[in-house]
Design brief:
- The complex is a heterodimer.
- Chain A has helices spanning 2-14, 20-55, 61-81, 86-105, 107-118, 124-139, 142-147, 151-186, 199-202.
- By secondary structure, chain A is an all-alpha fold.
- Chain A has a domain at 106-189.
- In chain A, helix 1 (2-14) crosses helix 2 (20-55).
- The mean pLDDT of chain A is 90.
- Chain B is 51% helix and 12% strand.
- Chain B contains 11 helices and 6 strands.
- Chain B has a 6-stranded parallel beta sheet with strand order 3-2-1-4-5-6, sandwiched between helices.
- The model of chain B has no long low-confidence stretch (mean pLDDT 94).
- Classes of the chains: A mainly alpha, B alpha/beta.
């Protein structure tokens, strides 16, 4: 693992001739493993939901039957007609796509009630959030931005200065954390991704 | 609402079902009767358009359909408008891959909407889809390093060698531009790390609106040439001269944003009204 990680890193940063083909092989292994995990996920779903069905888990088992039926039907259509076939495409558009878009769209309703109840000027900080939220809200409404052009530079400043600087701080913090995690994984100190217990867990912690 | 609550308290605590119903009505009206509100074209949209327009003939463009079904109503119209531009300009080689598992199916939807034959464009000659490649960032890195070693078939399983558009396409250096439509940070940020940084491929990125703040630092750093929210698809449609779903959505966005603003104002009036009435009662 250490050798593989060093090889990929060296190739990314230093471009040493000769390492390319080995890195391509490693990356292709990664792609194959990821594809394999999709199948593994389906097996895991079967394992989990057949347990719910056999135990008649209250409030769950009818939905478990439903998900298993849908997995089987989707797989059969995909295998029989091809993953880019018209029948599979129709099935996807009529089931997953419609539901997925509906669930995502329903966020708009939650956000609307959230804005009504949360964006209140209860104190100075909340008032500040309210003003910034109102500017962003109005700027992102196309026709309002045309009618009240002053909000365009106001929102541009909010995006360019406070938002970007805060986001940069978050990104740099996350990157430092990722480096630390990467180094620990490379030297074998972090084995959680293999399903093993961490040192703290071995000592009885969480 | 409990019995005995005052007017302001009841207004402050309006049942969510009432707010949902009003929002639904305001949402449906412009969908059924588009109102044609003005849509300002942002500098980012103009820059996106100009970047594609400036590409010399024969330039290959890597396009990632990295969004899932939930993001289609926002990103689908954007992708369609950009394809209209690419096909109308002609001479470009849009080569698409998907880092999202349902990207190939969503690509089919967009292509059916755009109808490349209308521009005289043929699959395999003027455009192609090389399929879903698992692994997200690993897939981006592998395709950038050696496309044929990663996949040698299109999304139907046909050999890439038989398609004229794939001649001379080897790795990231074969591409003059990268476009990504995505609902995921792994994709939008991954392309910066795996293509823009090592190969300096100019990068156009379109994400769902809530992801824009996350991506702004990359744009400010020059790693993204232009960043657009899918909700700005109407702007791209106006630039391309093909008004469609994006423009219709712009009316909905304007009205619903106005409604939410009105709700915020009403909520604050109710809040201060209740406080004032409590003070008046000595509460």
């Amino acid at each position: 693992m250490f050798v593989a990680a060093v090889l990929v890193m060296v190739d990314y940063f230093l471009k040493i001739p000769g390492t390319g083909p080995a890195v391509v092989q490693l990356q292709n292994w990664g792609i194959i493993l990821t594809a394999f995990t999709l199948g593994f996920g389906a097996v895991n779903l079967f394992y989990l939901h057949t347990r719910h069905i056999s135990r008649r888990t209250p409030g769950q088992w009818p939905f478990s039957i439903w998900i298993l039926v849908m997995i089987v039907v989707t797989a059969v259509i995909g295998v029989a007609t091809g993953a880019t076939g018209k029948q599979y495409s129709w099935w996807y558009n009529s089931t997953y796509f419609a539901l997925s878009a509906t669930v995502y769209s329903s966020l708009g309703f939650y956000m609307t009630t959230g804005c009504y109840r949360a964006l209140r000027a209860r104190n100075v900080e909340a008032a500040l959030l309210l003003v910034v939220g109102a500017i962003a809200l109005l700027r992102n409404a196309p026709a309002i931005a045309v009618g009240v052009p002053i909000i365009i530079p106001m929102e541009a400043w909010l995006s360019a200065v406070p938002t970007t600087s805060a986001q940069r701080g978050i990104m740099i913090g996350a990157a430092l954390g990722a480096i630390a995690l990467g180094v620990r994984t490379m030297i074998g100190r972090e084995t959680g991704f293999l399903g093993r217990l961490t040192e703290a867990e071995r000592r009885g912690g969480t | 609402m409990s019995k005995g609550k005052g007017f302001w308290a009841r207004l402050e605590d309006v049942p969510r079902e009432v707010l949902y119903a009003i929002l639904l009505i305001v949402f449906i009206i412009p969908m059924l009767n588009p109102m044609g509100f003005p849509v300002p074209i942002s500098d980012a949209a103009k820059k996106w358009y100009a970047t594609i327009d400036a590409l010399p003939a024969g330039s290959a463009i890597m396009i990632d359909f990295g969004y899932s079904g939930g993001g289609e109503p926002e990103l689908g119209p954007m992708a369609a408008a950009v394809y209209h531009h690419i096909f109308r300009k002609g001479g470009l080689k849009p080569i698409t891959m998907s880092t999202s598992i349902d990207g190939t199916l969503l690509w089919d939807k967009v292509i059916a909407e755009v109808n490349p034959e209308k521009y005289g464009r043929k699959y395999g000659v003027d455009y192609i889809h090389i399929g879903y490649i698992a692994g997200t960032e690993t897939a981006m890195a592998a395709v950038g390093k050696d496309l044929r070693a990663t996949t040698n078939t299109d999304y139907h399983g046909a050999s890439l060698d038989q398609f004229p558009i794939m001649q001379g396409i080897k790795d990231a250096s074969s591409f003059k531009l990268l476009i990504c439509y995505t609902t995921g940070g792994d994709q939008s940020e991954g392309w910066v790390r795996q293509w823009n940084t090592p190969y300096k491929t100019p990068y156009l990125c379109s994400v769902i609106a809530m992801m824009v703040p996350t991506m702004l630092p990359y744009q400010k750093a020059g790693q993204i040439v232009s960043l657009l929210a899918g909700a700005q698809a109407g702007e791209m449609e106006l630039l391309v001269g093909m008004p469609a779903r994006g423009i219709k959505s712009a009316d909905v966005i304007t009205l619903t944003h106005l409604l939410v603003f009105a709700f915020v104002v009403l909520g604050n009036i109710a809040h201060y009204g209740r406080k004032a009435s409590e003070r008046a009662r000595g509460g």
